[in-house]
Design a protein that fits this description.
By secondary structure, the chain is α+β, with helices and mostly antiparallel strands. Strands 2-3-4-5-6-7-8-9 form an eight-stranded antiparallel β-barrel. A hairpin with an 8-residue loop joins strand 2 and strand 3. Helix 1 runs antiparallel to helix 6. It is elongated.
């Protein structure tokens, strides 16, 4: 293997992921408020109805663009094991399944809303109306997604933005109810009750949940509790043995080196390492690297990307589905035959992004 140090763009991608997530929330809030305003036929000489409707439609399309950017930067960053399929298939991701699943649901709703808006003239009005009203659900779902797994959920400025967004939507809905108020309609009374209960419930949940220290580790699953009792969850050092296989170059000239090994001391773990890049005289110049680590019952409990490759020295950052992250250091010594290897491995808990979440 040759010496290749990964690009330092990871931090920029992480900031881009956080920034686009915040912009998505703001645009969703503006879209919901404009949508409510248009339903009461509000207009002024400065803001005629067709202008508000056009603005509402264009913001909805812009939301889709920023969500795609949010997803792309999160996946490309690779700090946590999230794939593109996790953005469209709800509750598919092994990492923070519920909160990322809510993000996928919001994305699907926005996508359906954007598509039906573009082809509205070709759709029956009833179908368009059902999809349109269902699209409003993406705002509270996105809010829960951001609070549940957002990196900045506990920052004062982010809390202020969440409060402003909540007040704005509630005020628009209250105005809508006031304009169309009829005491004889039970549905309106139910809407008033929801207008009081839902914000209060979200506020209490946020205060006792995401805004509390250690939220990422709160109420772990049975598997996570079991992992917390194992040495590797806190960091460890040991020896590793295994074999290496070098694949043939593909059509793009890229070669994949597959390394499979076992940690024999002090804990029994399996290791999978795949390095993809351009062939070199002494190995491969890394383009993409992925490492998985775990016991025999869950060999990919921790998974993540390689951040440094230098000779036989490999550094990777991996995380499990509960958000616990490790930095893994490998020193590999390949035998004369070029296949078998021995080496050492060490891992330490990573107390950075993983503790506050990445949204």
């Amino acid at each position: 293997m040759t010496s290749i140090v990964g690009a330092t763009s990871s931090q920029a991608l992480w900031f881009a992921s956080r920034g686009t997530g915040v912009v998505c929330l703001l645009l969703l809030t503006a879209s919901v408020v404009l949508g409510v305003i248009t339903t009461v036929r509000f207009e002024t000489p400065l803001w005629p109805r067709f202008v508000l409707q056009g603005l509402h439609r264009n913001i909805s399309l812009l939301i889709l663009v920023f969500i795609c950017l949010h997803v792309a930067t999160t996946v490309i960053d690779g700090f946590v094991p999230i794939g593109y399929i996790d953005a469209v298939v709800p509750f598919h991701s092994p990492y923070r399944t519920l909160w990322l699943g809510l993000g996928a649901v919001a994305f699907d709703l926005v996508l359906a809303l954007a598509v039906t808006s573009v082809i509205r003239a070709r759709l029956p009005y009833r179908i368009w109306r059902v999809v349109h009203w269902a699209g409003y659900a993406c705002w509270p779902i996105a809010l829960m997604h951001g609070l549940g797994t957002g990196s900045d959920a506990r920052q004062a400025w982010m809390i202020a933005l969440d409060i402003v967004a909540l007040i704005s939507v509630c005020a628009a809905v209250a105005w809508r109810l006031a304009v169309t108020w009829r005491p004889d309609l039970p549905a309106l009374w139910g809407a008033v009750a929801a207008l009081v209960v839902v914000p209060l419930g979200v506020g209490l949940w946020a205060f006792f949940g995401p805004l509390q220290p250690g939220w990422a580790r709160a109420k772990p699953s049975a598997a996570a509790r079991l992992a917390a009792t194992e040495p590797e969850s806190l960091g460890f050092g040991g020896t590793v043995t295994g074999s290496r296989a070098v694949g043939a170059p593909d059509a793009a000239g890229l070669t994949t080196v597959s390394i499979r090994g076992a940690v024999t001391s002090p804990v029994a773990l399996r290791l999978e390492l795949d390095l993809t890049g351009h062939p070199r005289t002494q190995g491969v110049a890394l383009d993409v690297g992925r490492l998985s680590l775990g016991p025999a019952t869950a060999p990919r409990r921790w998974s993540g990307r390689v951040v440094q490759l230098e000779g036989g020295h490999v550094v990777a950052r991996v995380a499990d589905r509960s958000g616990h992250a490790l930095t893994v250091d490998l020193e590999l010594n390949v035998g004369p035959a070029g296949r078998a290897f021995t080496g050492t491995i060490s891992a330490r808990a990573l107390a950075t992004q993983s503790q506050s979440g990445q949204g």
